[in-house]
Each structure stands twice: as structure tokens, then as C-alpha cells.
Write a structure and sequence with these properties.
Elements: H1 4-17, H2 24-32, H3 37-144, H4 148-162, H5 170-235, H6 240-267, H7 271-274, H8 278-289, H9 293-312, H10 322-345, H11 352-374, H12 380-399, H13 405-436, E1 442-444, H14 447-456, H15 462-466, E2 471-473, H16 478-497, H17 504-532, H18 538-553, H19 555-566, H20 580-608, H21 625-640, H22 646-668, H23 678-692, H24 696-706, H25 712-721, H26 744-755, H27 758-764, H28 777-794, H29 802-828
Antiparallel strand pairs: 1-2
Helix pairs in contact: 1-3, 3-4, 4-5, 5-6, 5-8, 5-10, 5-12, 8-9, 9-10, 9-11, 10-12, 11-13, 12-13, 13-16, 13-17, 16-17, 16-18, 17-19, 17-20, 18-20, 20-21, 20-22, 23-26, 28-29
């Protein structure tokens, strides 16, 4: 124990005297000793700490009074330091104020000395600068008196001789800087004449173009007349004397023509007469002397491009009148006539490449403008005048060497627009013709009237020619009028094809395409709209079918007409065919369909006025009045169909019978009809018999039999062998019992209820030989349930009568069996 205490003191001394990073081994030795050494070391360490605390406390007590005194002295020094700071700041301010005055006086002295030195330098160098100033003054004077050429020479002397001697001075630099400005001033002054020239061109451009277009048109007219005269002379083979006479006459004629042209040219001013080109030459010379010829060329071309854009910009209302187009074309022609003149009288100012580039730009803009504005034109006459203007415009510029093929290509697009306007115009003409037509055959009282009609329309009928006057042509008044208008359309379309530099074959093809559009689109649309109009009845529809048949036959004459006016041989050249055949066939099909529809609508109108007493105890013994009116209407209508093709009349008759049968069946099975008596069934059966029969003498006898309940079944059996309406052939051409099939469903259903043959129906149901094969179980069930409800309502005391009870049980039994059949059909489905 005693040994460990000195060891702990040594460890504590090492810890106090050793660096902190090296105390690890020393502390580890504490844990390497005896087991309780650590506890004893901690006690020793606590004792050592207490000793140091006591020493620190003694030291602090000893120096405490000195610390307090030092703090008191420091507070006194702070107050003195504040005073010292204020004094230093005030001293610095007064020193700065005193220094400003000294600095200002010093700077004034420096400026005075610099001025003295500069004055001395100016006096020494002034004699050297005076010649330069004199030459510059001379230059200004020359500028004032507009002696620009001398001024240019003076500027050359200044630059080459005088200014290099004094180039180090500022005023010389100013002169050097002003010399380009003076040159620019000279350029601007000379350029003013050029601007006046450009303004004059802008004002007279339309007049120049109008003059050039007139001259080109006169030249073309003269060349055409000369060519025709040469062709006539070349085709004649005459003796020498006579040919000399003709030659002399031709010379006189041509001489007169040339004299007239010369006189006309004297009256019409040329571009040189309207515009003075001398400012261009002078300005070009000045810029060339200055060495800025290229700048002048660029400026001139830039300004002309701007003017070109203004010229190419059309007025918004240009498409309204032909004068707007003429003014537009005249300005453009005038612009390029001036450019062509500048090209030929100057060297380099305008080049062929430049004019071609400008023309291509203008041509694209012109085409875009014409394409847009021509689309606004709805008057074919205006479009035709526009075409003539474009042709003159193209011929004029072509004479000056500008390519115009794209303009003729544009004419083909405008031709389509022209055709569209023609189609719209002729659409109105066709509508007016159809509105004014009475849709009845054309009456002719004598040979003269007949020839007038034949001269308008190619009609041939040997059978009709054999008849005596007065007589009627099968078509109505609209047929020759339509034929004439189609020919007028071809003439109008041909007008646009003139002067387009196209061959006869191409013109023939264009005419045929335009005529096909007229037939397949315009006339076809008018016919379809006519057919759909409410006021067009069955008689009118029949006449329309006849009219389209004759128009279809006249298409070959239209083809011959086009061939004649274009002088194209169909033998050597393959030509397109007209599509009138399909157009008129489609119109006939539409009229036929409308006939079927109107017949069905008329049948529906008669059906709607039917007024059955579905609870009557027995029938009236005669057919209903509405049905008699309906049958009379159908017979009179079918008589009108005698002029129609057989298939059309047969289809209309069959469609009417089928629709009538369907309508009667729907009336019988209407869901709103809740009760039907046997008397109503008998009356309904009489109406159906009336639909089937046409021999009214036998039918009246049969109706008398039908009034007797005892003879009813026998009369029905006789009716199946009676002459049916189908066999009466209201429209010729039906075979066998074709029309009878239209009423077969209704007939079998009524026979089933009239004969009350339910055992046969139920026994033979589903067999191909069944007598009631066309009777559907659901249909029979619906009708039977309506009769069942009526039987219950009318027979209040039926339960007291055995026959009525048996009949009611029979009906219930049949209803159950029919329901089972219907359920079986639904499950099978």
C-alpha cells in the first residue's frame, strides 16, 4: 500500500508534465497494477485536484484588487480617447478645406501654361494649314454653285496633295470625314433626278403598258391577217397576168395596212415619249466617276423591286370589273417595258439575269393574284374577258422576250373556274326550264310547227311521221330547250379555248370534259332535285322518264356537234365519249323510285281515312268506300303508265299491291286495336276480295252470298277460283298469279278465320303442303285474342248458352295451342 502511493504521485506528475497526446501509456499503467489500484489512483487524483483548487483560490484572492484598479483606469482612458477622436476629426476637416483652394489655384496655373503652349503651336503651324483651308473653302463654294464635277476634282486634290501634309491635326480629320459626306451629298443631289424619274415611271406605268399592249394586239391582228392572205394566195393557181393583178392588189392592201399602222403609231405615244430617261444616264455617269457604279446599280434595282411589289399588289375590288384587271396588267407591262428599255440602252445597270429573276418573282405573284381573284368571279362573261386580257398580256411580254408559259398554264386553271361559273349559270337555266315546263307531250298542229321542233331537237319516229296532224310528240317542251342549252354551253366553253395555242384535239377533249361535267353534275343534280320536289306528281314523273329517254338518245348528236365545231375526225383521233347515258339512266332510276314512293304515300293517305266499326255484328255486304276510291285511283294511275317501259310499270304495280297488303295487315294487327268482331272480319274480308277481283258483275253476286252466314264458306271456296285482280293485268306483262302473291299472307289469314279451320291449321302446321302455310302463329294468336275479348264482352250471358260456352272453350283451346307454337318458335330461335 505504501509502495503504491509514491507510484501514484509519479503518475500524476507525468500527467501534469507530459503532452496530452502522450498520456495514453501513463494512464494504461494505472490499470496494469493491482486490482484496487484504479480506485486508489482516483482518490489520489481527487486529493490533488482539491489542492490545486485551493491554490487557485489563494492566487485569485491575492490579485483581485489589482484587477479592479486596472478596470477603473481603463474607464478613465476611454473618456479621454473620445475627446481625442473628436479633435482629430476636426483637424482633418480644416486641413481638407484649406487644401481645396490650393488645388484649384494649382490647376488654374497648369491650364494657363497649357494654353500658352498651344497658342504657340497654333501660331507656328497656322501658315502650314492655310492652303488646306483655302482649298476646302473653294470646295464649299463649288458645291454652293452646283459645280459638282469641279468639286469632285478639288476633293481629289485635297485628298492627294494638301491633306497628307497636315493629317495630324484634328480639323484635317474632320475634313477627311466630311469629304465622303460631300460625295454622298453630290450623290443625293444627282439621285434626286433619278427619284423624279422613278416617280414619273410610277405615274406613267399604266399608260406605257396600255400602249405596249395595244401595239402588241395590233401587231398580232396584222400578222394574222397577213398569214390568212398568204394562205389564200398560196392556194390559188392562176396564170401569170392574173397573178400579177393579184400581187398588185395585195401590195396595195398591205401598203394601206402599213400606212394605217403608221398613222396609228403616230397617234399612240411610246415609252420614250412618255418618260425622259436622261436622269438615269446622268446619275449612272456620276456614280461611275465616283467609283460607286455598283452601289447605284443596287439602289436602282432595289427601288425598282419596291415599285414592282407595289405594282404587283392588286386592289381588293379588282375582281369586280374588267377595268380593274386591265389597269393591273397595264401597270405590270409598263414596268417591264421600262426595264427592257434600260436593259438595252445602258451597260450593266440592268442585266438579263436581273430582269429574268424579277420577272420570275413577278410571275409567281401574278399567278397567285389571278388565281385568288379569279376564284371570286361568278360571272362567266367577266372570266372570259379576263382570259382575253391574260392572252394579250402574255403576248405583249412574250414580244419583249419574257417567258409566259406559266401564264398559259394558269389559263387552264382559270378555264376550270370558267367552267364552274358556266355550270352555275346553266344550273339556273335548267331550273328555270324545268319550272316552266308543263310536263305534257308537245302538240304540233301542222307541218311547220313540227319542223320547228325538229330543227331544235333531233327527233325521229317513223310511226309518228305516219300520223296525221294535229299530233303530239312524246317529249315535253323542256327536252328541246335542254338540248339547245347544252349546245349553247358547248359554244360558251369553246370561246375560252380560243387563242390558247392548243391543238384541235386538245380543244375537242376540253369541250367533251366540260360537257360531261354539265351532264353528269349540273343537269343530273337539277333532275334529281326536280324529281324530289313535292309538287311533282305521278304524271310529271312519267313524263320525266320519257324526257330522259329522248335526251339519252340525243347524246350521240351532241358528240357529232362537238366533232364538227372542232374539225376532229373520230376515225383518225380517239375522242372521249359523253357520259349522258349514265346521267339520264340515273335520273330515270330516281324518277322510278319516286313513283314507287308516291304510290305508297297515296295508298297510305287512303288507308288513313279508313273508318271500320271493329265491333259490328255483321258486315254491310259491300266493300268500303275508301277502298273503292283507292282501286279507282290505282287503275287510272296504271293507265298513265302505258307509256313507260314494261318493267317500270310492272314494278310499280307489284310495289303498290305489296304495300297495300302490308298496310291492311298492319291495320288488322294494330296494337291500339283491342277488340275485333266476326262481323268486322267479314267486312275486312270483303275489302280484301275487292283488292283481288276486278270482274265487278260476278263480285256483286258474290258479295250477296257473303251476306248470308250459311253460304259464306261456299262463297269463299268459289272466290279462290274467281278471276283475280292479278289476272286482270292492270299492267301488261305479269305471268300467272304473280300479283296474287302480294295478298297471299292476308288471304290465308282471313280464310283461316272465316272458315274457322283451326284443326287443319294446327294439324298441317310446319308442312310445306299446308293450306295456311303463310299464316304465322303469332299473327293468328294476336287476332284471335282480339276476337276472344270481343266475344266475352258481347256475350254477357254466354255462360247460360251451351253453344257459346263450347265456342269460348274452343277459342281458349286454340289460343293455348297457338301460344305453345309461338313459345316453341322462340325457344328454337
Amino acid at each position: 500500500m505504501a509502495e503504491s502511493l509514491p507510484e501514484h504521485d509519479r503518475i500524476l506528475q507525468e500527467i501534469e508534465s507530459t503532452d496530452t497526446a502522450c498520456v495514453g501509456p501513463t494512464l494504461r499503467s494505472v490499470y496494469d497494477d493491482q486490482p484496487n489500484a484504479h480506485q486508489r489512483f482516483m482518490e489520489k487524483l481527487d486529493a490533488c485536484i482539491r489542492n490545486h483548487d485551493r491554490e487557485i483560490e489563494k492566487m485569485c484572492n491575492f490579485h483581485h484588487q489589482g484587477f479592479v484598479d486596472a478596470i477603473t483606469e481603463l474607464l478613465k482612458v476611454r473618456a479621454d480617447a473620445e475627446k481625442l477622436k473628436v479633435q482629430v476629426t476636426d483637424t482633418n476637416r480644416r486641413l481638407q478645406d484649406a487644401g481645396k483652394e490650393v488645388i484649384a489655384q494649382t490647376e488654374g496655373i497648369i491650364r494657363c501654361r497649357v494654353q500658352q503652349r498651344n497658342i504657340t503651336t497654333v501660331v507656328e503651324k497656322l501658315q502650314l494649314c492655310l492652303p488646306v483651308l483655302e482649298m476646302y473653302s473653294k470646295l464649299k463654294e463649288q458645291m454652293n454653285v452646283k459645280r459638282y464635277y469641279s468639286a469632285l476634282k478639288t476633293m481629289e486634290q485635297l485628298e492627294n496633295l494638301y491633306l497628307p501634309r497636315v493629317s495630324q491635326y484634328r480639323f484635317c480629320q474632320i475634313m477627311i470625314e466630311n469629304l465622303p459626306k460631300l460625295r454622298e451629298e453630290i450623290k443625293e443631289i444627282s439621285m434626286s433626278d433619278l427619284k423624279d424619274f422613278l416617280e414619273s415611271i410610277r405615274k406613267h406605268s399604266d399608260k406605257i403598258g396600255e400602249t405596249a399592249m395595244k401595239q402588241a394586239q395590233q401587231q398580232k391582228t396584222f400578222s394574222t391577217a397577213l398569214q390568212k392572205q398568204n394562205n389564200v394566195n398560196y392556194g390559188r393557181n392562176m396564170h401569170l397576168g392574173k397573178s400579177r393583178i393579184w400581187e398588185s392588189k395585195n401590195e396595195i392592201t398591205l401598203k394601206r395596212t402599213f400606212e394605217e399602222e403608221d398613222e396609228h403609231e403616230e397617234e399612240v405615244l411610246t415609252a420614250q415619249d412618255l418618260v425622259d430617261f436622261s436622269p438615269v444616264y446622268r446619275c449612272l455617269h456620276i456614280y461611275s466617276v465616283l467609283g460607286d457604279g455598283e452601289i447605284f446599280e443596287n439602289y436602282y434595282r432595289k427601288q425598282r423591286r419596291k415599285q414592282a411589289r407595289l405594282v404587283l399588289q392588286p386592289q381588293s375590288s379588282m375582281h369586280e370589273t374588267v377595268e380593274g384587271y386591265r389597269r393591273y396588267f397595264s401597270q405590270i407591262v409598263g414596268f417591264f417595258v421600262v426595264e427592257d428599255h434600260i436593259l438595252h440602252v445602258t451597260q450593266g445597270l440592268v442585266t438579263r439575269t436581273y430582269t429574268d429573276e424579277l420577272w420570275n418573282m413577278a410571275l409567281s405573284k401574278i399567278i397567285a393574284v389571278l388565281r385568288t381573284h379569279s376564284s371570286y368571279c361568278s360571272d362567266p362573261d367577266l372570266v372570259l374577258e379576263l382570259k382575253n386580257l391574260i392572252v394579250v398580256f402574255a403576248d405583249t411580254l412574250q414580244g419583249y422576250g419574257f417567258p409566259v408559259n406559266r401564264l398559259f398554264d394558269l389559263l387552264f386553271e382559270i378555264r376550270d373556274q370558267y367552267n364552274e361559273t358556266l355550270l352555275k349559270k346553266w344550273s339556273g337555266l335548267f331550273r328555270d326550264i324545268f319550272e316552266a315546263d308543263n310536263y305534257s307531250p308537245i302538240p304540233v298542229a301542222n307541218e311547220e310547227e313540227y319542223k320547228i321542233v325538229i330543227s331544235k331537237f333531233p327527233f325521229q319516229d317513223p310511226e309518228l311521221d305516219k300520223q296525221c296532224f294535229p299530233k303530239k310528240l312524246p317529249m315535253s317542251q323542256s327536252v328541246p330547250q335542254i338540248y339547245i342549252q347544252v349546245k349553247e354551253f358547248i359554244y360558251a366553253s369553246l370561246k375560252f379555248s380560243e387563242s390558247l395555242h392548243r391543238s384541235s384535239t386538245e380543244i375537242d377533249d376540253m369541250l367533251r370534259k366540260s360537257t360531261n361535267l354539265l351532264l353528269t353534275r349540273t343537269l343530273s343534280s337539277c333532275l334529281q332535285n326536280l324529281i324530289k320536289k313535292p309538287h311533282i306528281g305521278l304524271t310529271e314523273l312519267v313524263q320525266i322518264i320519257i324526257n330522259t329517254t329522248h335526251l339519252e338518245q340525243a347524246c350521240k348528236y351532241l358528240e357529232d356537234f362537238i366533232t364538227n365545231i372542232t374539225s376532229i375526225s373520230q376515225v383518225t383521233v380517239h375522242t372521249a365519249r359523253l357520259y349522258g347515258l349514265s346521267t339520264f339512266k340515273d335520273a330515270r332510276h330516281g324518277a322510278e323510285g319516286e313513283i314507287y314512293t308516291k304510290l305508297n304515300q297515296k295508298i297510305d293517305e287512303f288507308i288513313q281515312i279508313a273508318d271500320y266499326d271493329w265491333t259490328m255484328s255483321e258486315s254491310d255486304g259491300r266493300a268500303s268506300g275508301y277502298l273503292m276510291d283507292l282501286i279507282n285511283f290505282l287503275r287510272s294511275t296504271f293507265q298513265v303508265f302505258t307509256h313507260l317501259p314494261g318493267k317500270v310499270a310492272q314494278t310499280a304495280c307489284m310495289s303498290a299491291c305489296q304495300h297495300l297488303s302490308t298496310s291492311l295487315m298492319q291495320m288488322l294487327l294494330d296494337s291500339e286495336l283491342k277488340q275485333i268482331s266476326m262481323g268486322a272480319i267479314q267486312q275486312f274480308n270483303l275489302d280484301v276480295i275487292q283488292c283481288e277481283f276486278h270482274d265487278f258483275l260476278d263480285l256483286d253476286h258474290m258479295l250477296l252470298q257473303c251476306c248470308c252466314p250459311e253460304g259464306w264458306i261456299e262463297s269463299i271456296n268459289v272466290s279462290t277460283d274467281h278471276i283475280l285482280f292479278a289476272s286482270s293485268e292492270p299492267v301488261p306483262g305479269f305471268q300467272g298469279d304473280t300479283l296474287q302473291l302480294a295478298f297471299i299472307d292476308l288471304r290465308q289469314l282471313l280464310d283461316l278465320f272465316m272458315v274457322w279451320d283451326w284443326s287443319t291449321y294446327l294439324a298441317d302446321y310446319g308442312q310445306s303442303t299446308s293450306k295456311y302455310l303463310r299464316v304465322n302463329p303469332s299473327t293468328a294468336l294476336t287476332l284471335l285474342e282480339k276476337m276472344k275479348d270481343t266475344s266475352k264482352k258481347n256475350n254477357i250471358f254466354a255462360q247460360f248458352r251451351k253453344n257459346d260456352r263450347d265456342k269460348q272453350k274452343l277459342i281458349e283451346t286454340v289460343v293455348k295451342q297457338l301460344r305453345s307454337l309461338v313459345n316453341g318458335m322462340s325457344q328454337h330461335t
